[in-house]
Structures are given as C-alpha cells and as structure tokens.
C-alpha cells in the first residue's frame, strides 16, 4: 500500500472535507507535529490514532469530539499534557498514552464515567494520578507499569469494576494506602506491589487481603533497593501478603527479612509454576521450595548472606514426592558469598525433570557438583572460578557453556564423556593439552578467550557433524593457520573469527585451503592488523552466501576477482578504509553492486 507523506496542511484539509469521518489514523507519521483546530469539526469521529507521531500537544478542539470512543497516543514522545477540558469526551472508553512523555493528567479526566481502559505504561515522567481518580467507577483496565508514580490516589478500593491493575505504589507518606487493595478482589492477571518498605504497619498489609484475589495469576512484591529496613517488620509484612492458592507466578525483590514466611513454600503456593527471589540480601538460607508440586522455573539472585546451600532447600515433604518434582529450569545468579552446594544421599532423586541449570557469577563456590540429573539438556556455568572439575552426572546434556571457570575448563576432559553434546562453549583456561578429543555428536563449538589454545582442534574423526565453529580472542589458534585442518570437517557451514583482545599479526585472510568449500556463512571481526582479503582463499568458498566483516580498521583491499558468485549478503561495518572504496563512486562499487543485499556501515546499498 502506498504511504504518502502527510503534512499538517493535508490533515487540515482532510478535517474540512470529510466531516462524517468515523476513523482517523495518523499513526507513525513523524511529520505530524500538531493537529489543526479544525479536527474539532469531526463530530462523528469515534476512533483517533495518533500513536508514534511528533505532536507535543492536543488542541482544545479535540474535546469537541463528543462521540470519540478510542484515543490512541502510544509512543508520542513529545506529548507532555492533555487538554484541561478532557471531561467533555463523555463517550471515551479507551485511552492509550503508553510510552508518552506525559507529566500530568488533567483533573477532569476523573469525570469520564464511560472510560473502561486506561494505559499509561512506561510514562516515566508521570508521577501522580488525579486526586479524584476513584470516581472512574467503570474503569476495568489500568496499566501503569514502568510509570513514574510515587503514590496511588485515595479511595481506590471503591473502583469495584477494576479487573486489571498492573502496579500499585505505596507512597512514602501513606503506607496505609495498601489496604485499599482489599476492596479490589476481582483483580486478575499480574499485580506489582512497589515500595513495600513504606508500609509502616503490618496490619495494613493484611488489609490488602490478597488471599481473596482468586483470579490473580502473577504477583510481584518489591521493596526499595539499597535501603535498610527493620528485618522483623518486613518479615511480618510479607507474612501478611499471602496470596490466593490460584497464584501461578511469584517474584519477591529487595526483601529485607532474614527468612521467608511459611506460605512461600507451604500449600498456599501449591499451583505456582514460576518463583523468582531476587536481591534478598539479608536471608542467610534459602526457603525449602523443593516441596512445591507445580514449580517449573526457579530463579535465585543476590542472596549475599547465603554461604551454604544444603538439603534444607528440598524441604521435609511427603516421602512419596521427589524434591523439585516438576522443576525444569534452575538459575543461581550473583551469589557473592555462596561457597558450598552440598547434597546428601537421600537427595539422589531430586530434580527428576530439570532441563536447564545455570550458575552465574558465584565467585566463591567451590567443590564438586555431585548429583544425578537424568533430564538435564543445558548446563551453563559462568564466572565460577573456584568450582572444581567434577560436574553433575547428566547423560542427556546437549548444550554446555563453561565461561570464566578456570578449574572447570582446565580439566575439560570431562567433556569427552558427553555422548549427546551438540553445543559447547568454553572460555579462558582451555588448551589442546586438556582437550584431546571432543564428542562426536558436537554440532556447534564456541571458543572464547583461550589465548594459549593450539592444535589439534576438531578433526573429522572426532566431530563429523560439526557445522558451526566460532573462535574469539584465541591468539595462538589464529597464528597456527593451516594446522586447523578444517578441510577434514565435511559439514562445516558457519565459521567466525574474532580477536579484539589479543595482538594478532594476521594481515591477510582467509589463507588458501584454510576453509572448506562447504562454508555458507563467514564472519570476520576485530582483526586490527588485517589489510586484505585473500583472493584464492575466498574464491574457493563456492557455497558462501553470507559474509560479515566488522571492526577491521586497517582492511582496505578486496580480491581482484571480487567475491564468490554465490554471495547473496554482504555487510561491512567499522572498516573505514574499505567503506570509502565501496561507496557508489568508489573503486569497488562495481564488485559489490551485483550482490543482492549489501550493507556498508549500516547504509543500505541495494
């Protein structure tokens, strides 16, 4: 469909000629910076969409659109306020001003008795709602997530029609306001309670009566970050925010208590499938979540006081139920003082369905991970330098990442036993002496920061199915050149070479005979000394369809014969000497103009 360039004069003309217009959409027209006063003459207009325009204000005449039911102002980044006479839009049912720059709403908005949906998500400049906001008795949907609200208006408990309330901020001067939630038992979907440290009396949290919100599926309980509160008081507040058993997702963030109330791991959460406990820095032990029968996803982050994780995590549930019977994803993130993860013999049947396990930035974690994980398919261990070389027994793992884990990668001979492994990423202390062979099932190999890695790397005898090989900052590997023997990999189609953190002396690439003719995608990045692309080496890549060259600042020459005829996509970025020659009047224009899609430094050529 042809999209014309609209001017404000054209819009004015439209408003004068089409008086019976019912729907008008100017969405996406950045050229529209203001609306003409004549828009007030469209008395039959029911739907007005101004989303993603550049308007900074709405003319007062908009308030004459008495039949308007839907007004869309989504992503109007320069819009800071609405007209004062907004209450004259008596039939307005739907207002979306999300991602706008509104600083305030007119007090008259509270008089729109027919308003059912109000979207103010990510209006970061909006700090308050009108004081009589509770008069919107027919409002069903209020989305204020990501807004700048510092408080909620009074008497919100009177808004009995409200079914969706994305966020509720407890004001610093009115912690008792949280009790207003007790009148909103029909809330459904997700609810985010923010600034819970402002709740001064635990009894006020009890009045919120979350137990009666039987349609609520997701609950986020968040205290202020980087503030120290009364630990016992915060435990009482959390205890009184027990949700209904229908809840499916729970997130607790910045909680200052030293332990969790029983409802977090007892029957009240019998249907929960997703639990995220984030930045609970004063809790010295994890709650016994192992007995939650429906739990599938568990994220633990920044429990700075936790030193040891042991059997207490599993709980004392019935003997017929295995710990974490339904859990599929487990992530530990930034556990700065965690030193030991110990499991006893009785825990051998824990995690029967666990598929993904991630340990990120647990710098003090030591010892072995001795456990049997029969269903695990993905294991990621990142920035755990003290963890020893003993990994869990996981016969079905297909994806393994070992990043900045010196003791683990230093003994990566354990990788050889993974018969189902298809994806392997290894970083830092990895060299040919510690990895003499790789699993034959391997399809993707990513090697990053292994400066001392030499050869042998994967011969066809070891990895006949390898299709994707990526090397980053492996200095000795780059200089070893032809000894890579990549011609022995019959299915290799993707190859990446990058060396931003090492002093490589590679001035020409790829060397003739280095890469097999099966390569279809080639990425050459951060080779600071590279000056030319080798003609013979490139012409041998008869299957090459995609070539990406990035941040090779000294690269200035491409092959005399151009690129392989099979090439369909070329992108050159951050290569200033070469980019100039590839311009429309440049030396190499004729050699790249035949390529169906060429992008030079983000500028689309074809």
Distance between the termini: 21 Å
Q: What is the CATH top level name of the domain at 158-170 and 180-350?
A: Alpha Beta
Helical percentage: under 10%
CATH topology value of the domain at 158-170 and 180-350: Leucine-rich repeat, LRR (right-handed beta-alpha superhelix)
Strand portion, in percent?
Answer: 15-25%
Question: CATH architecture of the domain at 158-170 and 180-350, please?
Answer: Alpha-Beta Horseshoe
Q: Helix/strand-derived class?
A: mainly beta
Uncertain runs? none
State the shape.
flat
Main β-sheet, in a few words?
A: 19 strands, mixed
> What radius of gyration results from the CA coordinates?
31 Å
- Tally of extended strands? 30
Number of helices: 8
The average pLDDT is 88
Keywords: Leucine-rich repeat, Repeat
Domain R13L1/DRL21-like LRR repeat region: 178-302
Organism: Ficus carica (Common fig)
InterPro entries: Leu-rich_rpt, Leu-rich_rpt_typical-subtyp, LRR_dom_sf, LRR_R13L1-DRL21, LRR_R13L4/SHOC2-like
């Amino acid at each position: 469909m042809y999209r014309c360039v609209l001017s404000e004069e054209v819009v004015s003309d439209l408003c004068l000629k089409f008086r019976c217009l019912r729907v008008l959409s100017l969405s996406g027209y950045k050229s529209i910076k203001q609306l003409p006063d004549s828009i007030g003459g469209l008395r039959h207009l029911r739907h007005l969409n101004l989303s993603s325009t550049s308007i900074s204000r709405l003319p007062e005449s908009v308030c004459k659109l008495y039949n308007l039911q839907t007004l869309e102002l989504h992503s109007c980044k320069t819009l800071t306020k609405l007209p004062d006479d907004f209450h004259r839009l008596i039939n307005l049912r739907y207002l979306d001003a999300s991602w706008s720059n509104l600083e305030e709403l007119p007090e008259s908005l509270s008089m729109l008795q027919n308003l059912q949906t109000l979207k103010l998500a990510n209006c970061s400049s909006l700090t308050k709602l009108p004081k009589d906001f509770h008069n919107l008795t027919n409002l069903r949907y209020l989305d204020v997530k990501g807004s700048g609200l510092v408080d909620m208006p009074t008497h919100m408990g009177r808004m009995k029609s409200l079914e969706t309330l994305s966020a509720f901020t407890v004001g610093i001067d009115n912690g008792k306001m949280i009790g207003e939630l007790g009148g909103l038992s029909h809330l459904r979907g997700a609810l985010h309670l923010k600034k819970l440290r402002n709740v001064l009396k635990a009894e006020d949290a009890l009045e919120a009566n979350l137990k009666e919100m039987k349609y609520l599926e997701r609950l986020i309980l968040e205290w202020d970050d980087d503030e120290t509160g009364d630990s016992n008081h915060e435990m009482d507040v959390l205890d009184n925010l027990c949700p209904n058993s229908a809840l499916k997702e729970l997130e607790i963030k910045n909680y200052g208590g030293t332990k969790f109330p029983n409802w977090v791991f007892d029957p009240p959460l019998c249907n929960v499938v997703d639990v995220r406990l984030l930045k609970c820095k004063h809790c010295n032990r994890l709650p016994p979540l192992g007995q939650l029968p429906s739990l599938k996803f568990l994220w633990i982050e920044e429990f700075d006081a936790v030193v040891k994780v042991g059997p207490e995590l599993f709980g004392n549930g019935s003997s017929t139920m295995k710990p974490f019977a339904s859990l599929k994803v487990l992530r530990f993130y930034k556990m700065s003082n965690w030193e030991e993860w110990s499991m006893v013999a009785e825990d051998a049947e824990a995690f029967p369905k666990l598929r993904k396990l991630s340990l990120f930035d647990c710098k003090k974690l030591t010892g072995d991970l001795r456990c049997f994980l029969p269903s695990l398919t993905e294991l990621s261990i990142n920035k755990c330098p003290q963890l020893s070389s003993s990994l869990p027994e996981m016969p079905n793992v297909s994806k393994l990442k070992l990043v900045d884990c010196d003791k683990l990668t230093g003994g990566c001979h354990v990788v050889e036993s993974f018969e189902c492994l298809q994806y392997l990423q290894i970083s830092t202390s990895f060299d040919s002496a510690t990895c003499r062979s790789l699993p034959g099932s391997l399809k993707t190999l990513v090697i990053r920061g292994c400066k001392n890695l030499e050869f042998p790397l994967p011969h066809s005898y070891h990895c006949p199915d390898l299709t994707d090989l990526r090397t980053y900052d492996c200095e000795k590997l780059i200089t070893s050149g032809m000894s890579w023997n990549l011609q022995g990999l019959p299915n290799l189609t993707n190859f990446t070479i990058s060396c931003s953190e090492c002093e490589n002396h590679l001035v020409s690439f790829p060397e003739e005979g280095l890469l097999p003719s099966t390569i279809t995608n080639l990425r050459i990045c951060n080779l600071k000394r590279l000056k030319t692309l080798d003609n013979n080496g490139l012409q041998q890549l008869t299957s090459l369809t995609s070539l990406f060259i990035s941040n090779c600042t000294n690269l200035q020459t491409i092959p005399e014969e151009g690129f392989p005829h099979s090439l369909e996509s070329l992108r050159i970025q951050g290569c200033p000497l070469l980019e100039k020659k590839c311009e429309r009047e440049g030396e190499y224009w004729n050699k790249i103009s035949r390529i169906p899609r060429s992008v030079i430094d983000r500028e689309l050529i074809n």
